[in-house]
Please model this.
Amino acid sequence: MVKPVVVDTTSRSSGDVWYFAYGSNLHPQRRATRAGLSPVDSAPGTLCGWRLVFDMPGVPPAEPAMASIRRDATGEVHGLLLRLRAQEFAALVGSEGGDRFYVREQVEVIAYDGRGVIAEVFVAAPGRRLQREGTPSRRYLELIREGARLSALCPEYCAWLEALPHAEASPTARWASDLFLEVFMRASRGPLRGLAQGWLDALQRTEELGPLPRRVAQGVLLAPVLGVGVGLRALERKP
Model:
């Protein structure tokens, strides 16, 4: 006999929001750094009828693609349910670029303990997806892999993540992309959020150019941001 799913409605009366993390937000350090999240509750779970894809533009030149999900009748995505205070969820939405990069959908996730949880999930916004799925960087995929293990996702899913291919990047490219992301995240939490999101959007669109124009455009866009990042790091190192 199939056991009926009991839908968890505890968050509705409290104003809290259940959020389903499936990408780099599986990693607790990433969540803390990005939006300072302190979940009220958490539980691993499965979202049926969807599959994990890497078709979101990344952060050139070292991050070719980021994670999203797509509807797939035979697919399933394992992830972590996080119960967040309303203000924390709003901060998370802002850190993900608001509605510029992702749209939010309500889905029912089956927690490993059997509860059915109505949760918010981020899906690539229309027009933002890459024309074909990309290959994530080693750094980004390792965040997801380690986050999956720390979130106690099922061993079979963790093994599947381990088997996914990843792209390599030069140390210089990794440094540039990491520093850009650092500046972007700082700006996204303040009044410069719109400027930061527009800058990232322009950087991502350089991937549509030919090899030489792409390198020139990325250099022009990255140079001032990297200058700011280097300056901020220098200030933080001062006693």
Notes: The CA atoms of residues 53 and 197 lie 22 Å apart. The helical segments are 10-14, 28-35, 86-95, 138-150, 155-163, 171-188, 193-205, 211-237. The chain has two domains: 6-163, 171-237. The two ends are 66 Å apart (CA to CA).
